[in-house]
Amino acid sequence: MTVMPKWADVILVPLISLFLALAISALVILAIGEDPVEAVQLMIEGSVGSIRGWGYTLYYTTNFIFTGLAVSVAFHARLFNIGGEGQASLGGLGVALVLLFLPWPHWTVALFAAMLGGAAFGALWALIPAWLQAKRGSHIVITTIMFNFIAAGLLNYMLSYTLKPAGSGDPASAKFSPSYDLPTLNSILTDLGIQAARDDSVNVTFLIALLACVLVWVLMWRTRLGYEIRAFGHSETAAKYAGISPLKITVIAMLISGGLAGLMAINTVMGEAERLVLNSTGGAGFIGIAVALMGRSHPIGVLLAALLFGFLYQGGAELSLWTSIPAQLIVVVQALVILFTGALDNMVRMPIERMFLAMRRG
Amino acid sequence: MTELAIELRGISKAFGPVQANKDISIQVTKGTIHGIIGENGAGKSTLMSILYGFYKADRGDILIDGKLTAIPDSQAAIAAGIGMVFQHFKLVENFTVLENIVLGAEDGPWLAPSLSKARKELKSLAEEYELNVDPDAVIENIGVGMQQRVEILKALYRQADILILDEPTGVLTPAEADHLFRILRNLKAEGKTIILITHKLREIMDVTDTVSVMRRGEMTATVKTADTSPTELAELMVGRKVLLRVEKTPATPGAKILEVRDLRVVDEKGVERLRGIDLDIHAGEILGIAGVAGSGQSELLEVLGGYRNGHGKIVMNGQSIDLTGARSDGQSRRARGIAHVPEDRQREGLIMDFHAWENVAFGYHHQDEYQRSALLMNNRALRQDAEGKIERFDVRPANCWQAAKNFSGGNQQKIVLAREIERNPDLLLIGQPTRGVDIGAIEFIHQQIVALRDAGKAILLVSVELEEILGLADRIAVMFDGRIMGERMAGTTDERELGMLMAGMTGDAA
Amino acid sequence: MDFPTLIQILDSTLRLATPLLLACLAGLFSERAGIFDIALEGKMLAAAFASGAFAAISGSAWIGLAAGIGASVMLSLLHGLASITFRGNQLISGVAINFLAAGLTVLVAQHWFQQGGRTPSLLGDGRFSPIKLPLADTLSRIPVLGPIYSELISGHSILVYVAIICVPATWYVLFRTRFGLRLRAVGENPAAVDTAGISVVGLRFAAVVICGVLCGVAGAYLATGLQAGFVKDMTAGRGFIALAALIFAKWRPWFALYACLLFGLLQALALRYQNLDIAGIAVPVQLMDTLPYILTVVILAGFVGRAVPPRAGGEPYVKER
Amino acid sequence: MILMRTFLGAAAALAVSAGASLADPAVVFDLGGKFDKSFNEAAFGGAQRWAEETGGDYREIEMQSEAQREQALRRLAESGSNPVVMTGFAFGNVLNEVAPDYPDTSFVIIDMVVDQPNVRSVVFNEHEGSFLVGMMAAKASKTGTVGFIGGMDIPLIRKFACGYAQGVKSVNPDATVIQNMTGTTPAAWNDPGKGIELTKAQISQGVDVVYAAAGGTGVGVLQAAADENILSIGVDSNQNHLHPGKVLTSMMKRVDNAVYTAFTDGPGLETGVNVMGLSNDGVGYAVDENNAELVTAEMKTAVDEASAKIVSGEIAVHDYMSDNSCPVN
Predict the structure, then answer these.
(1) Could you give the CA distance from residue C83 to residue C90 in angstroms, rounded to a whole number?
(2) What is the CATH number of the domain that holds D316?
(3) How far apart are the two ends of chain D, measured CA to CA in Å?
(4) What strands lie across the sheet with D26-29, from one edge to the other?
(5) Same domain, D113 and D69
(6) How many angstroms separate the first and last alpha carbons of chain B?
(7) Does some domain include residue D141?
(8) Helices and strands (H and E) in chain B: how many
(9) Inter-chain contact C184–B106, Cβ cutoff 8 Å?
(10) What residue numbers bound the domain in which A185 lies?
């Protein structure tokens, strides 16, 4: 029995949860002896107060769109893909291998190839947990956690022994060819004659992320596969009754999920670092969980939540640059958002449901 | 002497917007068996759960032995001498019988003394009431009848004077049910009070002293069993005159549609659920499968519907059907003209969170008319199709944007039926067509099934309601323990004969 | 490998297995009661910070231990609130708690000590120092057994012995007491417990609090026993290895001990040998580090004995209607 | 409206603070953080010394993630900080890109050579300093087995190890040098627990002097050495005070001097590669009241003698990074 109108479910509840998370974050800032108002001002100024700020805000947003969509697609199939981090770092490996060892004539071709490489490696890293879940009943949450660690070990090994250029002290690959540099907001604006910040922040992959939102929406709500994924996610028994193969859906949903997570690497590895470094993901795989939860697994919601987290991330980075508030503040905000929009959802929802019930009766 | 064991006064309980119990009052005399009868969803279980402290009533008083007693939780109910055997047993599957009995009734913080005391107690209880169980057997390894005894023992071990049994015979064979009723009479003789919740009229007439009837959350009547009749009770349950028989003409079976030979199924736990089934179904007939729940009829439906793998031979319209592998699933069965209304529509037949229009295509979503292009689905076509089906099957409310979970049980079933029947299948598999469906919808559903038969289609009907099988089917096969015990023509058999077969007695003995 | 090296490696194994074991048993209590807990890591981290901070402030390892347990139990209660009271998703709650601990520890450490998210180094009574068992010196001259007693068995901090004693204690509580029976039952079928008149919520909260206490001890051991103070992210995935060990042990106490010792041994070997040479094949340290995770995946895949978790695990208990 | 005011207010506040920081120097600490008791802390110490002596202000930033590097450098350059000093080789790549965009800003990078006109690259002859403490280790060792515990397994740390081993062998050619690296990722700088375990493992192999070149991990090494009653050698900063009487000496890498000098030189400082070695007190060993009793006169004489010979070129200490190999091990 629906007691709440849909708008309350998709807008009101997340907003209240977000408000609670932010309110508690403000208390945390107060508790460590800082001024929340000033902190918020600094964050706004640093993230959306300048072209540079926007550049980085959108750069982080791009990451979070990819990982948020990754988690969302898996959520639709009722799979909790906690392995976005590992899949994204493997995606980075894929991008790096494609760009380091194969020649490409132009950045557009290179980008396309890198997308394939990143998505393929990310998908591959999701494939094994998916297969184990579907075929052997291994809990996908545990396997993807384990695969995050295994990915870290693998990447560590590759960067320490295989990809590291001789004589380098950095556990990082060589730089990619400069001809693969992606057009950035900065370079585009400069071409237009607008003086912009010089950096490698937001680049064309942002547009690809937006495209990914559209494609995921089309996939989930306009294709047979999406229909089957959602059906499977809502009821595995019903899906089986309808002749939808659990193995197929689990594997395909996780391949798409892992592929999306892997695609993030074109932004971080190809776009920003222009080489493969350790920890290029920077926790974006985990933020994807918060983004998907907040965005109710809908691409529009994911986009908005990713923007919010992009803002928090860039603002938080600024905060830690100019104040003594550590960037871990953002980790706390992220934790609180996951807590309130995910685990404590009922705490927010139940009183609101009661309220609507009372209104309907009254 | 009419001392009251229980008196409920003005009990009300709502779950969210649903009013499950409305101002219910009831008096249960000590040392009697008191039946509570009503349709599914009438509020019987809720009422008893309140009495057992499982739920808290919004309003109303409970009197035990004439004293006003607050029952905030099950602990209080147990302390007040109430024991309850739930429809779905509340046993820890990988614990032993002994551990299950001791759980919650331990003597002290250490386990060993409790267990040895319970072992002795169990022995004397078993002798007293004919309730033999092996105390060291693990629950998941014993049968349902045995598990039910454990539940009763659990209550007796807690010195219950009042025993509530919720639909206790749903999973029992008639013989097991008879044994249960013998036990209940023994308990009554010992001075225990028993409340029996059921929707089966026969049980009420057989075993109870008094019967209360519930309908839509309200108590409509309480009468002495001796002073009433099944017809009267049925009318009280439903609230109007009921046609207990389905109106249909005799069948005119045509060509053989489905042939099943030596069909075998082994389930996930390695238990053989079907042990060689042979069946034929012809066009224009309804074959009913009778049997106690768990006799293999679910598995039969599932194999035929492509939900589960099996071994053996199935020939449909002269062509054999794959029972394993990629071409053995719901989709390929539908392609062969087999439609399937599953037993559990909420778990299998519908996606409860999907809109009605999405559900109307469920399982057929890959069909050409629903596609816009190779990649995209045509949602508009889906909705148009859904609107037509909703109208023709009188689904209420006629709103294709409403989520399936927000329709009543009957309307949910109509959505499933509309989807499956309008595909014009050669064979319709239909399981528990009217479980949890209100009486008005039952008639409609039965009419649809008969109409499909009259259109020359083959129908395989599985139901645990013997009455429904007898009324609807033309031919009846009875299953027991994964085998078909015998086949009877509906017109020439009766409940007693089928009951013997359901209990595993061969046709000759019956 | 000579005998003294072996003793040393085993000694190191014991030290490294201790936090794993405590966290693993913590997880065992929680998951046996049907509450999945992927936040062992976060609770350990919070406990490590709290114990490091309070030991530094008070100069007493015991006060540190109490603070560590307190911090961990607080997070446990949060997990309980989310997953028991409000019937939220236990995994999501766990993820949130892990992040909360990772962020808050650094934030508070920075605010309190201004040392970049670490606590001051602990000295003297601020740490749990090794305990020499009676006669350790006297017996050390006995060949083979002497060194085993005096070096391997003796000379650990008290929390190591606490962890070991927790194994039989856990077994006893679980299988020989009323509480244990109920705890196991609530993880298998909470409805059975509920209808037997026992509070599911109460039992599960009890389990979650025990989990918090044990994680607290584990974290305190990291900061005040194994090391001398808190550094950010010092648990370094131990909570997840403990989780892996729990699955490896199939939720049984004695097997938890063996699994933790095995994983401790892997860590000890990985620490000692950067590139272990086994039959001419150099095993990179990364492989040693990830071996517990790989083994867990193999176990989960059911290739080496299937791990069946408690049946009601992960599902919030809702009374059926 | 309120939002607008907030924006303007924030902008105004930032403008004021930006104005105040004009031409102040800045230092950027690497991921280990400025309180790693080692490398970054030394840099912090240099900056503090400058601030105390001159009364000046400086900006400081601690890296939290890889992606922040570029952003931090650009923000500092744009907000007028000059010179901008950064600690750690990991900035190399980024600086190479950033420096040309801000020709008016002077950058100083420590532990890495970046060839840009406005960049001063400060590198240290760690192998020379390590050679000296290696000699002291060999002299202090009774077992003839000494240990080395490095942080991340990178050529720079191999350079420490190689210099150390050469020093040990120069005193006692039969000595055994047991080497361990904490790991292959930046996390290796920050894992005192692993430092403790590695030290205990080395002790069981007979090590009685252990040299830690492992950033924050070294704190654990020194701790374990003190607990187990053997000698340790600190690195980068003077770490003798951490466990008085237990730390034989510290291999001083005067990152503090590099930062201090850079700050003092101010905007427009001389660029190019700046090699800090024994000759210009860029490296050395620490003697203070905490280890005075441990360093014998004979030891000191021998080491000082060797130091002079290295400066004069009479002793050539092999630099691992010159060919990625070490003649002894």
Answers:
(1) 5
(2) 3.40.50.2300
(3) 70
(4) D59-62, D26-29, D84-87, D107-110, D119-124, D272-276
(5) yes
(6) 43
(7) yes
(8) 16, 20
(9) no
(10) 62-306
Whether residue B394 is found in the same domain as residue B503? no
Q: How far apart are CA D249 and CA D235, in angstroms?
A: 9
> pLDDT: is D120 or D7 the higher one?
D120
Q: Find the domain containing B461 and state its range.
A: 252-337+426-510
Q: What rounded mean pLDDT belongs to chain B?
A: 88
Question: What are the beta bridge partners of residue B275?
Answer: B264
CA within 13 Å, CB half, A147? 30
Confidence of residue C139 (pLDDT cuts 50, 70, 90): confident
* Residue B458 shares a structural domain with residue B317: yes
Neighbours of C263 (CB within 10 A): 27
| Residue A238 touches partner B, C-beta closer than 8 Å | yes
Chains A and C touch (3+ CB pairs under 8 A): yes
Residues 326-345 of B with CB under 8 A from C: none
Cα–Cα distance measured from residue A232 to residue A244, given in angstroms and rounded to the nearest whole number: 8
Residue C100 and residue C42: Cα distance in Å, rounded? 7
Into how many domains does chain D fold? Answer: 2
CATH number, position B148:
3.40.50.300
For residue A238, the distance in angstroms to the closest alpha carbon of chain B comes to 4
pTM: 0.87
Q: Which of C91, C93, C99 sits opposite A141 (nearest CB)?
A: C91
Q: What backbone torsions phi and psi does residue B266 show, to the nearest 5 degrees?
A: -115, 130
B210 and B122 part of one domain: yes
Instruction: Give the whole-angstrom CA distance, residue D292 versus residue D242.
Output: 14
Q: What is the pLDDT of residues A94-123, one digit of tens each?
A: 999 999 999 999 999 999 999 999 999 999
Residue D145 forms part of a structural domain: yes
Question: Does residue B458 form part of some domain?
Answer: yes
**Is position D328 within any domain?**
no
Q: Tell me the one-letter amino acid at B341.
A: V
CA-derived radius of gyration, chain D = 21
E strand segments, D30-142: 59-62, 84-87, 107-110, 119-124
Question: What is the residue range of D44's domain?
Answer: 4-124+256-279
Residue B8 to residue B62: CA distance in whole angstroms: 5
Q: Does B52 touch chain C (CB under 8 A)?
A: yes
Residue type, D133: V
Looking at residue A128, which CATH number applies to its domain?
1.10.3470
**Is A248 within a domain?**
yes
**Beta-strand (E) ranges in chain A?**
none
- What separation in angstroms does the CA of C290 have from each of A154, B99, C127? 9, 41, 30
Answer yes or no: do A240 and B348 touch at CB < 8 A: yes
User: Which residue of A150, A160, A328 is in closest CB contact with C107?
Assistant: A328
**% of chain A beyond a pLDDT of 70:** 96
Q: Answer yes or no: do B443 and B418 share one domain.
A: no
Q: Does C85 touch chain B (CB under 8 A)?
A: no
